[in-house]
Amino acid sequence: MARGTRASWLVWLRRASQTAFLLLFLYLFLQTADHPIDRPGRGVKLFFQLDPLALPLAWLASHAVAAGMLLSLATLAITLVFGRWFCGWVCPFGSLHHLIASLRPGPAKDKLDTGGYAPWQKAKYYVLAVFLGAALLGANVAGWLDPFSFFFRSLATSVFPALNDAVARFFGWLYDANPGIGPLRVTAASEPVYEFLRRHFLALRQPHYSGNLLIGFLFAGAVALNFFRARFWCRYICPAGALLGLVGKNPLVRLSRKPDACNDCRLCLADCQGGANPNADGWKPAECFYCFNCQSDCPSQAITLGLARDPLVGAGHARPGALQINRTIAVLTGPTWLRSFVKPPKPERLDLGRRRMLASGAAGIGSFFLFRTGALGAGRSYNPELVRPPGALAEDDFLARCIRCGECMKVCPTNAIHPTALEAGLEGLWTPVMKMTIGYCEYECTLCSQVCPTGAIRPLKVAEKQRIKIGLAYFDRNRCLPYAYARSCIVCEEQCPTPKKAIWFEEVQALAPSGERVTVKQPHIDPALCIGCGICSTKCVFKDRPAVLVSSAGETRNPANGVLLNATA
Question: With contact defined as beta carbons under 8 Å apart, do 142 and 54 qualify?
Answer without folding.
Answer: yes
